[in-house]
Specification:
mainly alpha, Serine Threonine Protein Phosphatase 5, Tetratricopeptide repeat
Length: 315
């Protein structure tokens, strides 16, 4: 079997894997809180302070193989299959495969041994950013035990526990951080968001309002408060927080999207209309209004006209 046949078989295999992953992606929800994802689609920031979101893993996996295919077939001579270079081969390495743990499996990324609390904190932060939660918890727990006044260690430990789904431990860690530093706005935000994620909306609002007093212009905290208020049915108050975070236009969009999530289409229309009044060419507002008017059996010539205009301008 010549090299060209082997390469064709390899490409066919990768396409099959990618197609399977694409099917899975269409049936898998995004990581993270659903409400936070909803407003993040309009460019807003929400969630834990310092939280690093890496997006849809499947979507990232799919892009590398097809970029490599493009390079394979983008040469001047379109009738010949070009040789795959080492650089092209590297593009296929991001295709997801099942990890088998055995004696030959290399150990996860390990950092240098630490002695001081701050060194353990640095290691814990690095592990957390790398998604190595167990290692992060070990390092951050050590840092917190060596220096109980190291607020960041308690705070990041809470983030790690939240990612592990250990809400009670996360709350304990956040509260230790706040006990050490009562005016730590980020620790209060993280505690508030954790409470919100676990359905304790009133307690979440209380902590988030305290955080905003300390950091009145923090977009993340304002949006988290807006989300918690939405869960309490206080959408007018939620709008005020969303608008403080990113302005009236985005504030209206975020409130409308949350109302739509809760099935309150008529109320959502009001906020989408307010957003459209601010920006008549808003693609998102126009499209959502068109869908909602159709769903509710209403007609609005302005929406139809704007939809046509948007399509013609490509906005």
């Amino acid at each position: 079997m010549n090299k060209r046949s082997l390469l064709a078989i390899f490409i066919a295999f990768v396409i099959a894997v990618a197609a399977s992953a694409m099917w899975s992606a269409s049936t898998t929800e995004r990581d993270g809180d659903a409400d936070a994802n909803t407003i993040e689609d309009s460019g807003s920031t929400a969630g834990n302070s310092g939280d690093v979101k890496k997006g849809n893993k499947v979507a990232r996996i799919l892009t590398a193989p097809f970029k490599a295919f493009g390079r394979l077939f983008s040469h001047n001579d379109k009738n010949k299959l070009q040789r795959m270079t080492e650089r092209d081969a590297e593009k296929f390495e991001s295709v997801g495969v099942a990890r088998v743990e055995d004696s030959r499996t290399p150990e996860p990324n390990k950092l240098a041994l630490a002695n001081s609390a701050k060194e353990h904190l640095a290691n814990g932060r690095a592990y957390l950013l790398n998604g190595q939660l167990n290692e992060a918890i070990t390092e951050l727990s050590t840092a917190a035990s060596l220096d109980r006044k190291l607020t960041e260690a308690h705070n990041l430990l809470g983030v790690a526990y939240d990612k592990k789904g250990l809400a009670d431990r996360a709350r304990d860690s956040y509260e230790r951080a706040i006990k050490v530093e009562p005016e730590d706005a980020q620790a209060l935000n993280n505690l508030g968001f954790s409470l919100y994620q676990n359905g304790n909306y009133r307690a979440a609002v209380d902590r988030l309002k305290r955080a905003i007093k300390l950091a009145p212009t923090d977009e993340r905290i304002l949006n988290n408060l807006g989300l918690a208020l939405c869960r309490l049915g206080k959408f007018d108050e939620a709008y005020k927080q969303f608008a403080r975070a990113a302005g009236p236009y985005t504030g209206n969009l975020n409130t409308a999207r949350m109302l739509e999530r809760f099935g309150r289409d008529e109320d959502a229309i009001k906020y989408y209309e307010a957003a459209r009044n601010i920006d008549p060419n808003s693609t998102l507002a126009v499209k959502r209004l068109a869908d909602l008017y159709k769903r509710t059996g209403r007609t609005d010539p302005t929406v139809a006209t704007a939809t046509v205009a948007t399509a013609n301008t490509g906005r």
